[in-house]
Design goal:
Layout: H1 10-23, H2 41-54, H3 59-71, H4 76-91, H5 95-108, H6 115-127, H7 138-153, H8 158-187, H9 191-204, H10 211-224, H11 228-241, H12 246-257, H13 269-279
Helix pairs in contact: 1-2, 2-3, 2-4, 3-4, 4-5, 4-6, 5-6, 6-7, 6-8, 7-8, 8-9, 9-10, 10-11, 10-12, 11-12, 11-13
GO cellular component, one term: cell outer membrane
Pfam families: YfiO (PF13525)
Membrane topology: Lipid-anchor
Length: about 280
């Protein structure tokens, strides 16, 4: 998302386009070396905005914003050009450099009105690289940390609201990774390893969409090991919290097919979870 207000300069930028092309010695936006010596900072900045708004690629816009910073390093347009450069780099999917430029903006202008946007761009540079759940989730962890920074440092900004939504999606993504590994172990009949993964989802990612399936897979795994009390308790928690979920129907059939009922039994971590989540006993 571009900074609010930037789009409003479109008409001004169009009017300046011809002047700037002349001021550039006829280089245009073909990627030739720019010759902007003597061109005012605002005009170069507006040309960068114009390129960002009208071109499919942001490479020329990046050049103009960089030139503002180089030629007029202490101007107010240099400050704005720096964060706009970070945004343009992100749009080009040059995520690492976008992070570097955004962090440089924060280091130089920590109290600027665009600080929240720069912080958000850093978070986006990780978030937009999150791969499918079958791959290493290191970037997901980094995205979560960066999104949390936006939420905590700029809680009243528009970027905080967006970060909360993305944080929930990234958190769900990590739970999906645990589920994928757990299902793999379950197919391999490595039930103890599978239980460990599903337990992580139930205990650490309980607010995600994967919790009902994790409880159901616990029922499956415990039944396979002959641990009926644990299976019954997992089924009881699933039924209490997700009774209308198809995974509860599957667990109910599994349990009743062996003459068992989904109710809390025995002791252990699931029974403790049942006391806390279902009965409200925390001590």
């Amino acid at each position: 998302m571009a900074r609010r207000g930037a789009a409003g300069h479109g008409l001004v930028a169009l009017a300046l386009a011809g002047l700037l092309l002349t001021g550039c010695g006829g280089t245009g936006s073909s990627g030739d070396a720019l010759n902007l010596e003597g061109v005012p900072a605002e005009e170069i900045f507006r040309r960068g905005e114009f390129e960002l708004e009208t071109s499919r690629r942001a490479t020329d816009a990046i050049r103009y914003f960089s030139e503002v910073e180089r030629l007029y390093p202490y101007s107010r347009f240099a400050r704005r050009a720096l964060v706009m450069q970070a945004y343009a780099l992100h749009r080009e999917r040059n995520y690492e450099e976008a992070r570097t430029v955004a962090q440089r903006f924060l280091d130089t202008y920590p109290g600027d009105e665009d600080a929240a946007w720069a912080q958000y761009l850093i978070a986006l540079s990780f978030y937009d690289q999150i791969e499918d759940v079958g791959r290493d989730q290191g970037l997901t962890f980094q995205a979560l940390r960066a999104l949390r920074d936006v939420i905590e440092r700029h809680p009243d900004s528009e970027y905080a609201r967006s970060s909360v939504l993305k944080f929930d999606l990234a958190f769900d993504h990590l739970a999906g990774k645990e589920m994928e590994v757990g299902r793999f172990y379950l197919r391999q009949r490595q039930y103890a390893a599978a239980i460990n993964r599903f337990r992580v989802v139930v205990e650490d990612f309980e607010t995600t969409t994967h919790t009902p399936e994790a409880l159901h897979r616990l029922v499956e795994s415990y039944l396979a090991l002959g641990l009926t009390e644990e299976a019954r308790t997992a089924g009881a928690i699933l039924g209490h919290n997700f009774q209308g979920n198809p995974f509860y129907d599957d667990s109910f059939r599994l349990l009743t097919g062996q003459g068992l009922a989904p109710d809390a039994a025995g002791e252990g971590w699931l029974r403790d979870l049942y006391r806390q989540a279902v009965r409200g006993d925390w001590l």
